[in-house]
From TrEMBL, chains A, B:
L-aspartate binds at E175, R221, H449, R492. It comes from Weissella soli. The lineage of its organism: Bacteria, Bacillati, Bacillota, Bacilli, Lactobacillales. It catalyses: tRNA(Asx) + L-aspartate + ATP = L-aspartyl-tRNA(Asx) + AMP + diphosphate. Keywords: Aminoacyl-tRNA synthetase, ATP-binding, Cytoplasm, Ligase, Nucleotide-binding, Protein biosynthesis. The record marks G83 as: Important for tRNA non-discrimination. This is Aspartate--tRNA(Asp/Asn) ligase. Its EC number is 6.1.1.23.
Length: 600, 600
């Protein structure tokens, strides 16, 4: 029988109509001679009523129905009795009196209920992902994701962008995260690499004159996993020729506005999206991805505290560091000494040595360090604007420690104090990034974005030397939403000599540069246009628009935190013949208890 | 400067307007004090005119311009002199008199001309793919491909389909082609596999209640390559719940019509798309993907020739084989004895032992075997409808040899005789396939489509035994266009017991079935809906709509026939440290001369 309607969309406008429905039994109540079944499909739930009066055979079928059976029915839409109306359902005013019914599939008892807000382990949810995805909140999450891509295709297709696929079996290149490798069967000892992004290919497509490229592209990074990372993830990837940074940002704004409208029906006011220079963002928020849904900006007290009686402050300034603070409004009485101790412990990870704080009371500043700051109290209150009842949290250290510490405390305390307007969509552009950043762990300079980022025009003379290059700033622009980096964009280098300077400043010899990127360098000698682009992270965007805090909630079949997929148990051992064909010797997998791998 | 127009789109409607253009120098003619430059962008070409009168500085810049330089100009659109009009260009009636100009990038001499129809090796084109893609025909090919996906997204998004991504790091499963493997760093000896299709995942998504899924999905097969195969390829993949085969075919028809309209502006008449049963297609055309742009159907002469004096025919019938023929209209005088000998040699690959033929002349049938057929001549001409001037080509052998032979000869001779209407788009559905087919090379029965294909309802009782199952037919339906298989679809098995019977008939033990597909079998116990779908091959569809004969022409960065990518030279050797991290031992790659690998 052909379905006439989705169950969840039937309402009183269908009264007296005969409908054919298919879906799952959400629940069943047998009142003896009268059976009610909640029928669920992807659009929601409708109540079915079975009785001898409505359909004798159908009643007999309903007696056999159990939760999660797949059924098909034909019936007539009728009003519910006044007392039986359910205002929480679109279909809550009606029921379908069933004339005929059929069971299409039976079902065992499911390992968890098919409903929102279940309290079961992620591992169980992933093992039975096809059941987990039946739950309305997961249906909604994946449909929001689908709407993002639909809006993206619609907007970009209508704005002259050409959807071009780039290879997934690509070349392993240095600079970046660890590659996933794919052994070649034909060339023993040779490997393809799964791409970490389509970056080089899209630049070559600009070199090929396509002018406007886009792709919803999978990317792969073999990194250590954490909550918002997956071995594979999806980029909404665009590239344009002959456009300035400002023109690209404007176009992306319109694209994002189209997404916001289609997914969450939000009218994004593009004119209100702020642009912060990177240095400004770092100074005011301690991070390059500030959450602008709330204030609590970092207050620079370095000058004020240079001669502080509190040695920690004075010493920090003397050592070339900073003293900064945030004001947590109304938090003086909220946080106990113990709470603050916990914060102090938390920020040790950033290198902070203790947490100085003050509470503002009617009596003035109080707390362990108050006695050292009596002479500064008036200036401190004036400069920070702290009011009675507020909590002041300080960081005094090198700039990077101060920034990380106060960024963390700002977000943590704002959340705890419910100072974040969860209904806001706070977009921001961060521009004028450093071209390089120093990596202390590896004691070397790496690209702040990637090695193909164009320096500022004014900084091009700096590129002649490695030391100069490390001081240059970049034509790059990141899009931030609610404290998350949504996307990272830049104008690209399109001239070989600048690209060579860039690679040289990264420590590449001429030969190493040729080996890794020779095809790109040569391409640039054949007339490459000025170009720029951006890639938005689809997983993160979907997570934010769905109001979730883990990207696994918006991916149909994600890997768990150990990189395995508990349903299929991938990765798995493979037949010896497969490895032999690849000329590979791999360790014996039998030493490892495969199913246990999947447990968290 | 912000571009105001694409060069190729300017025509006389822009007269006297000032335009800013960017693009590549297609060619340059210096007439001394007057320089003409053809400026090319992705939309086409416009003529620029430089002179002291129009712009003194611009003229000086134009003197430095060379082919493939990237330039930016501002100028005024003016009529060309009457004698200088070029009717082949949209912009052929106008030129842009340049006021100011700038060189954005210089270019070396390119290894081939940036123009259509170049005669250089595929290898050179792939090595400099970014130049090859500048050529208008390649621009057009990739834009047709982009229009197919745009039409697909638009149609499916508007018809309730949810775009859901499935993993590329998946599980290796038996039954199918060879997998590409991806070693796991975290689990030594374990491997992900790149998916050969999203088949199982999309079935699980139907089990999850999404009702309508689609994905533009990359798929991977490590097979030996040939003209229309690539290691990675793209499927337009859809799956639907609760729909019959007829309903699915109808929906796909509308989708394909939307694609045809958007890409080649063709109004596809859905009602005229024929549906052929598989057995009928095999009988009439000798193939399951008949080219219906022309007739020349296979004529079954088995009954007529059972008692033929020509021993080859009589023996074939006696041995349980067939005698069939095609009539090639007007070909009697076209093919020489030598041509026919070549055909005979060609069909040896199908097991054909010689090629019997007749020419129809005013004197009747002629040719080496004519003397054996004198008594049959009248019946033969009556049955085949052969006319004076026609050529009759025969095959007499087992059914599969006859089918392959006459399919090949039908296509070959029709092409040679120009009997194919190249303007036609001949779609057809092929239905009612066998569920299994016997694989003589491996001496075993394999799935004609894949192991998840639903048998015909009437054949379900056959599934109880292996022998019975091998006789069953399937609810499967392939879409054919101009003799190519565009897509392969089927209703899927949604009940565990049928799936177990299917795997058993393929030779899986219970344990092997559990190991490979346990998650799917278990899923089916939790209430899976009836479902079906199809995957259309994007590469092949784009190739056909672009009028090309190799899918490499519609892929931006394809692999060559040896599976390498000549531009980046992937696959390549990788750092030893990378292999060590993966716990892999691979053969020394240095034994192989890497650059040579890429040569054809």
């Amino acid at each position: 029988m052909k379905r006439t309607n989705y169950a969840g969309l039937i309402d009183e406008s269908y009264l007296e109509q005969t409908v054919t429905l298919q879906g799952w039994v959400q629940k069943r109540r047998d009142l003896g001679g009268l059976i009610f079944v909640d029928l669920r499909d992807r659009e929601g739930i409708v109540q079915l009523a079975f009785s001898a009066e409505f359909g004798q055979d159908a009643l007999a079928v309903a007696e056999k129905m159990r939760t999660e059976y797949v059924i098909e029915i034909e019936g007539v839409v009728k009003s519910r009795a006044a007392g039986a109306v359910n205002d929480h359902l679109k279909s809550g005013k009606i029921e379908v009196q069933v004339k005929s019914a059929q069971i299409l599939s039976e079902a065992k008892t499911t390992p968890f209920y098919i409903e929102d807000g279940i309290n079961v382990s992620d591992e169980l949810r992933l093992k039975y992902r096809y059941l987990d995805l039946r739950r309305p909140e997961m249906q909604k999450n994946l449909r929001i994701r689908s709407k993002i891509t639909a809006a993206t295709h619609e907007f970009l297709d209508n704005n002259g962008f050409i959807d071009i696929e780039t290879p997934y079996l690509a070349k392993s290149t240095p600079e970046g995260a660890r590659d996933y490798l794919v052994p070649s069967r034909v060339y023993p000892g040779a490997f393809y690499a799964l791409p970490q992004s389509p970056q080089l290919f899209k630049q070559l497509l600009m070199g090929a004159g396509f002018d406007r490229y886009y792709q919803v592209a999978r990317a792969f990074r073999d990194e250590d996993l954490r909550g918002d990372r997956q071995p594979e993830f999806t980029q909404l990837d665009v590239e344009m020729s002959f456009m300035s940074q400002a023109e690209i940002m404007d176009l992306v704004n319109h694209w994002v506005a189209a997404i916001m409208k289609k997914t969450v029906d939000f009218d994004l006011n593009i004119a209100e999206i702020p642009t912060l220079e990177w240095a400004d963002a770092m100074a005011r928020f301690g991070t390059d991805k500030p959450d602008l849904r709330f204030g609590m900006e970092l207050q620079d007290l370095t000058a004020l505290m240079a001669d502080s009686e509190f040695g920690v402050f004075a010493n920090a300034v003397q050592n070339g560091g900073q003293v900064k603070a945030i004001v947590v409004p109304g938090a003086a009485s909220h946080f106990s000494r113990k709470d603050i101790d916990k914060m102090a412990q938390y920020i040790e990870r950033f290198g902070a040595k203790g947490l100085a704080w003050l509470k503002i009371t009617d009596e003035g500043i109080t707390g362990p360090i108050a006695k050292f700051l009596t002479t500064k109290a008036a200036d401190l209150l004036a400069q920070t604007g702290a009011q009675t009842g507020d909590l002041l949290l300080f960081a005094a250290d090198q700039a990077s420690v101060v920034a990380q510490t106060l960024d963390a405390l700002r977000r943590m305390t704002a959340k705890e104090m419910k100072l974040i307007d969860e209904s806001k969509w706070a977009f921001a552009w961060i521009t004028n990034w450093p071209l390089f950043e120093y990596q202390p762990e590896e004691d070397r300079w790496i690209s702040a974005h990637h090695p193909f980022t164009m320096p500022n025009e004014a900084d091009l003379p700096l590129m002649a030397t490695t030391e100069g290059a490390h001081k240059a700033h970049a034509q790059s622009y990141d899009l931030v939403l609610n404290g998350y980096e949504l996307g990272s964009g830049s104008i690209r280098i399109h001239r070989m000599e600048i690209q060579e300077q860039m690679l040289s400043a990264l420590g590449f010899t001429k030969q190493a540069a040729q080996d890794a990127f020779g095809f790109l360098l040569e391409g640039m000698e054949f007339g490459f246009p000025p170009m720029g682009g951006i890639a938005l992270g689809l997983d993160r965007l979907a997570m934010l628009l769905a109001g979730r805090d883990n990207i696994r909630e918006v991916i149909a079949f994600p890997k768990n935190s150990k990189g395995t997929e508990p349903m299929t148990e991938a990765p798995t051992t493979v037949a010896k013949a497969q490895l032999a064909e690849l000329n590979l010797i791999a360790p014996a997998y039998s030493d490892i208890d495969a199913p246990n791998m999947a447990e968290e």
